[in-house]
Amino acid sequence: MYFFNGFIIPVVRYHKTNSALLKTILPSINQLCSVHVRNLKNIKVDVVSNKSESAAMFNSKDIITISTKNGPLKFPSVWLRDNCQCPNCFHQESQSRTIDWGHFDFNTIPLAVELKETDLSIEWSDNHKSTYSLSWLIERSFTKEKRTRYRKDCYRFNRVVWNAEDFKKCLKTFDYNDVMTDNNTLLLWLNALTTYGVSIITGTPDDIESSKKLGHRVAFIRETHYGERFIVKARRVTTNVAYLAAPLQLHTDLPYYDYTPGVILLHCLVQTPSIGGETQLTDCLYVAEYLKKNDPETYKVLTTTYVDWNDIGQEDGNHFHSINRAPVLCEDDFGDIVEVNFSQPQRDSHFNVPLEQAVEWYKAMSIFTRLLYSKENTVFFKMNEGEILTFDNRRLVHGRTGYDDDNDKKRRIIGCYLDWDEIYSKIRVLRKGV
């Protein structure tokens, strides 16, 4: 009997033969092991120990289970065969599966299984043999606890919601030069961005390219029909309401894109000295969680009703007409909010839903909007020159109070986008290397 990570694991080997019944007594330990073969499909191994702890392994053609006092480890047989780690099935350098599914036998079953101190070995009916590290298997356990931990630690990471009262303690600041030159600071910034959805970079050089360089420190800039970057300043003639000096309503950027940009970088190059020009932010995730708990009907309407989003205009001679359909609150298969779409100017007059559903949606939207603008949930602050406000465009809504430009000093914000795929990738790489 072997001990591994708190598991008591016997060495067991069993085979299937033509309807024969095999019994094996492990000679080295005071245990009784029995092997049962039923219709060449099911094998059961029971282990009884005279010690206070015991373990058993059960196998069928579909599931292999290792049961211990700490709970069972269950793995689909087909998953184990599909994830064989031998050089013929897995390319180590690229960390990629190389099994050809065009010739993969989905009906392959285990003929022999052997548990050792650190490994699980299986002989398959397709004449293949696989060996798996037990630590590798434990990391990939199908238990709810393990799956949840992987999702929070490796997939989309843990998030902390906030309201107006919490905002100051959640807002982290980082020096531009430190982020650009030190990987540990880069990781701290990206961790704060994933956790709270917002952070500020200070000490940014007075350069129109600074936000772009910051983006390239992570990966590359997400281009849109506005190009690699956009300049927010008051204009007399514009097709974008953000380019007016009037108040800008709370919104997410580009909900009319099928794949909405993940993070916005707003570099305050010049700030207006006049009253106004304050940035407004609300954490939609906080509001969504509040609704899910206290008003589930409204939450359901906002997560299931598809809204038409639309934008028509031109930027630097580039004409565009973008359309997308998506709910205001988008859930993943775990019930977590993964995207928020909210923009009064870019919501289409076409609303492709049944009449009654439209009425219910407007009721739900009025409740959601009121919560977004509530003084308990929203915050205002004025960016300083040399700061880059970085925030999650798929989680936070942002807006701006109106302002009057000074003739000698006109407000100028340089913006660009990053995609979450690249940010998550960078975080995983940095966590391994820092």
Please characterize this protein's 3D structure.
The structure is a single chain. This protein is α+β, with helices and mostly antiparallel strands and 434 residues long. The protein contains eleven helices and 26 strands. It has helices at residues 77-82, 134-139, 144-155, 167-170, 176-181, 183-196, 210-218, 284-294, 296-304, 355-373, 420-433; strands at 2-4, 7-9, 31-38, 42-49, 56-59, 63-67, 73-76, 90-91, 96-97, 110-115, 119-124, 129-133, 172-175, 198-202, 230-232, 248-251, 263-270, 279-283, 307-315, 318-326, 329-331, 337-340, 378-381, 388-392, 396-400, 412-418. Helix 6 packs across helix 11, helix 8 (284-294) packs across helix 9 (296-304) and helix 9 (296-304) crosses helix 10. It starts with a strand and ends with a helix. The relative contact order is 0.13. Residues 1-56 have low confidence and may be disordered.
Structural class: alpha+beta
Q: Judging from the principal axes of the Cα atoms, what is the shape?
A: globular
First and last CA, distance: 39 Å
Uncertain spans, ≥5 residues at pLDDT below 50? 1-56
Strand order of the biggest β-sheet: 13-14-24-17-26-15
Q: Count every helix, treating DSSP H or I runs of 4 or more residues as helices.
A: 11
Helix percent reads: 25-40%
Radius of gyration: 29 Å
CATH level-1 class of the largest domain: Alpha Beta
Classify the fold: give the CATH topology of the largest domain: Double-stranded beta-helix
Number of strands: 26
Report the major sheet: 6 strands, mixed
Percentage beta strand: 25-35%
Total tally of structural domains: 2
CATH homologous superfamily grouping of the largest domain: Clavaminate synthase-like
Provide the residue-averaged pLDDT.
85
CATH architecture descriptor name of the largest domain: 4-Layer Sandwich
